[in-house]
Amino acid sequence: MSDKDKIKIENINLYYGDFHALKNINMKIKTNEITAFIGPSGCGKSSLLKSLNRMNDLIEGVKITGRVLLDNIDVYKEMDPTVLRKRVGMVFQKPNPFPMSIYDNVAYGPRTHGIKSKAKLDEIVEQSLNSAAMWNEVKDRLKKNALGLSGGQQQRLCIARAFSVNPEVILLDEPTSALDPISTMKIEDLLTEIKKNYTIIIVTHNMQQATRISDKTGFFLQGEVVEFDKTEKLFSMPKNKKTEDYITGRFG
Amino acid sequence: MDNISKHNNAHEKLMQAIFFLSASVSVIAVIAICLFLFLRGFQAISEIGFSEFILNEKWGPTNVPPSYGILSMIVGSIYVTGGAIILGVPIGLLCAIFLAEFCPPNIYRIVKPAVNLLAGIPSIIYGFFGMQVVVPFVREYFGGNGFSIMSSSIILGIMILPTIITISESSLRSVPESYKEASFGLGATKEETVFRVVVHAAGSGILTSIILGIGRAAGETMAVVMVAGNSAMPLDKIELLRPIRTMTTNIVTEMSYASGLHQLSLIATGAVLFVFIVILNTALSLIKSKSARN
Asked: Could you give the angle at the alpha carbon of B212 between the alpha carbons of B206 and B213, nearest 5°?
């Protein structure tokens, strides 16, 4: 499994109306690695992330050219978006649990994909919450409304919810930007723990976070990938002057 | 300087008094109506006897000896209101979902004003429409003479549509985009997302629209009196295609010539209707707050 290219991004160009937001992006994302996208606001890193599970389809006026291959299958031409999004899960910037019980939040995905058996759902809920390291915290209040949880717990619940449909890839869009340092640490630990089973791509504003958890880092600037390399390398000896300026805090 | 602040102070006091008075008007009105209804109504009920009034189905205030039972009208009100809910809620809710989630803008420009217009039509017009169109329709296709529970339910079902559509639509629209994103992100389709997340999240607003719809249907008089047939039926004769008398139509048909205890008993009917609506509203609000807590 290892060393395999899970996702291949080939010549992706993305336009919001007339605005050219992504320019000719090419990247290969490896299985069981954590890949971080960094760069200043508006650099296109979130747009690229959302192209990978076709969440950009939901925005009006978006045009995408090029190919995204998941296990060598073109996700724009050969795959239904619902199937794609089941395989490529997503965690959003702001924790967004549904206004339902903790249990129903996690069971929503499997139910949507046709699982009705109570025993099976119970099992999935427990497994997913366990993988998100919060089963023990919430097992006694599964029927309580998820909106009563703290922000950090809500975000971990969203990660559990993403696990519930058994995805292969998990996309995280600045998942800790709304959280306190302790919740952030818990989620970072969680991500390094689970990467053996998943392929993870994380967009982050926080360069320390990228160095702490990611194997590879891509630096984005004005819709282009300036540099994409092993995290260690990119942060210790960046090849590009712009990367160096950014990671040393000269702009951004 | 002192003068100006004194002036401002007095001005502020005056304005406060005006605001307070304006706020009091509605409170005073409610208290006055309750006092009137319950004092006069209580007089009638104590003379007739509570169970004789509420639990007796025989209404004949001009008979000798007179009888003052309104049970069949309470049941009549429940029937037509229930019928209106059965017809109006699904149609109204689906329309609201369509408007909020699926409607292309060019169709929205037609449907939305039509719904608003529906809200502005006076009930007497609904009554005429019912009499001229719905009653013959029911007579033709379902049987009976057309003046019936069914005709009343159809008219009331249409009348509550704007209430249900408008309030449900705005609560559906206020569901945060992030819930939908989360659902799409899990591989749900648009329909699944709308019915299982958006409608669920808008539940409390939808329930509010239904409560208001029930209040409107149970209290409606003019349109019902024109299509219901208005004969007080003994309980065992109440049928979907037969005429019915509701609490509201009982009052309006007899108020013009009633006097003495007869008149008081009509006011008491109004009091029962009032309590009926208050009980319905309280019950539904309790359900609402309970579901909100969970």
From this structure: 85
Has this prediction a pTM greater than 0.90?
Answer: no
Q: Which of residues 136-195 of B touch A (CB under 8 A)?
A: 176, 178-179, 181-189, 192
* Residue A61 lies inside a defined structural domain of this protein: no
Inter-chain CB proximity B182 and A113 less than 8 Å: no
A3 Ramachandran zone, left/alpha/beta (phi>0; psi -120 to 50): left
User: Other CB atoms closer than 10 Å to residue A144's CB: what's the count?
Assistant: 15
Half-sphere exposure for A220 (CA within 13 Å, toward CB): 27
Q: Model confidence over A8-44: pLDDT tens digits?
A: 999 999 999 999 999 999 999 999 999 999 999 889 9
CA neighbor of A74 nearest in space, from A47, A45, A54, A59: A54
CA distance A157 to B238: 54
Angle at B53 between CA B49 and CA B58, to 5 degrees: 125
Do the Cβ atoms of A83 and B187 come within 8 Å? Answer: yes
Contact indicator for A199, A33 with CB cutoff of 8 Å: yes
Reading the block at residue A63, the tokens are: 């045009």
Residue spans of chain A under pLDDT 50: 1
Write down the ipTM of this complex. Answer: 0.91
Question: Which structure tokens are listed for A247?
Answer: 């990671």
Range of the domain at A91: 31-53+84-247
Q: How many CB atoms lie within 10 A of CB B111?
A: 14
Angle between helices B177-185 and A151-163 (to 10 degrees): 30
**Contact (Cβ atoms closer than 8 angstroms) between residue B202 and residue B172:** yes
Number of neighbours of residue B6 by Cβ within 10 angstroms: 10
Q: Which domain CATH number covers A240?
A: 3.40.50.300
Structural domain tally of chain A? 1
